[in-house]
Amino acid sequence: MVPTRTPAFVLSLMLAAGVAGGAGCGRAEQQQQQQEAGERRADGGAPVALAPTGKVLEAAENESPAASATPRAGAAAAGPARIEIPAGKLVAGSTPGDKGRDPALEPALLEVELGGFTIDRALYPNDPAQPPLTGVTRSRASELCQQAGGRLCTELEWERACKGPEGTPYAGGAAWDPACAKAPASCASGFGVVGMGGALREWTASDVAPIENLQPRAAAVRGATASASGVDHRCAHRAAVDPGASGDDIGFRCCHGAPNAASIPSPQWQQTFRRAEIGPQQVAELLASVPQLRDLGGEISFFKEPDDVNLVLGRGRTRLSPGGTPAVQSDGGPPPNTTLTTAPLLWNPVPGEEVLVVTGKSDEDAFIVAFLRLPGERYRIASSLLLKGDRGPIALGFNGYVRRRLSWATCWDCRGEAGNVTYRDDNRVVITQK
């Protein structure tokens, strides 16, 4: 018989990127069902060897504003009608975990070399005395650029012109200035191109490659409307639109010279859960670089498998009633198709996103931590749960057919001693207790 244990842990740490609370899963559940035909279970195949480098990045919600985050609205001066963009490297896309990032559309810091090209300073007709032309399809926009002696810009050319030589997140700076939505012609990128991402979306010559069961092939549209959320005005923001559509909120601008062939590949579905090969010392180094997790202290270690998994299950089978009499609560077994583990997991909730989920313990406390995996084996904190005064063990329960959620428990199927790790519709990871 497994002795009783009073739930002793306290929800003591939840980073801003993963605030405890209910998460709407209606759309997420539908997307999970769409992927069932192509899913593979995670209890097969070799573990993925991880080799973390550098300090863990802070969650976007907890980052301090950069000194260079002052927007430069009103900085646009008169300039040539066409801007020469030199050849150079573009870091396209954004960092996993950035506010407003859609991992299925925005690549994770994709480095590309682009040849030089020329871009119109303003939206078509590139005349400050006339308003931008809207309400045309992409093919019509392409025809008009050809008639003007140019071509429709590719989306990577558009992004390079927007980010400027310094690679800023927004045209002209590290922060969005709402004044640019009211007077887009007064806001210039570092290269001097005006109105990028200010008040209109813009057609590009590029396509969004399809993702099975999620994203059909579509036209790549950049920029945002004046009323859009601030993060949608980022240079990396990308939308997939029917090329035959038209609207008063979509304009375009023309480029000149040979088009750059570089394009953005769409991420594809991966195995939902894979075992991660990472050691306790590597995890300790990751935790030590997160200010909110330095209090763990002591030696970090993992729970044992299968012993600690069986202990978590055993606690769920037998509990003591209020009078002290043993009472069977349930059979204590996991649901069908669910695997329990104490090993680190690499999780692919949606295309383009990888999350490392780790459980373990220090001298006095147990923890669950989720890290976003970045290019170059860098990591960013996504969410964490610290069990103060409780050394676990904690088991993770996963089902390869359920994309956006896995379970955790110190006592399987026991209220207050279990919960979920959920990937929400807003692309945030939350760890919740139930």
What order do the strands of the largest sheet run in, or round the barrel if closed?
1-12-16-17-18-19
Estimated radius of gyration = 25 Å
Largest beta-sheet characterization:
6 strands, mixed
Distance between the termini: 25 Å
Strand content: 15-25%
Helix content: 10-25%
The strand count comes to 23
Calculate the mean pLDDT score and round it: 86
Structural class: alpha+beta
Unreliable sequence segments: 1-43, 67-71, 320-329
Number of helices: 6
How many domains make up the coordinates? 2
Description:
With 434 residues, the chain is α+β, with helices and mostly antiparallel strands. It folds into 2 domains: 16-62 and 271-433, no CATH class; 82-256, paralog of FGE (formylglycine-generating enzyme) (Alpha-Beta Complex), CATH 3.90.1580. It is 12% helix and 25% strand. The protein contains 6 helices and 23 strands. It has helices at residues 26-35, 138-147, 155-163, 179-182, 280-288, 307-317; strands at residues 48-49, 82-85, 88-92, 110-114, 117-120, 151-152, 201-208, 218-223, 238-241, 250-251, 254-256, 273-277, 318-320, 326-328, 339-341, 345-347, 355-361, 366-374, 378-387, 395-398, 405-409, 418-423, 429-433. The strands form 6 sheets. Strands 1-12-16-17-18-19 form a 6-stranded mixed sheet, with helices on one face. Strands 15-20-21-22-23 form a 5-stranded antiparallel sheet. Strands 2-5-11-6 form a 4-stranded antiparallel sheet, sandwiched between helices. A hairpin with a 6-residue loop joins strand 20 (395-398) and strand 21 (405-409). The longest helix has 11 residues, at 307-317. The relative contact order is 0.19. The model is unreliable at 1-43, 67-71 and 320-329 (pLDDT under 50).
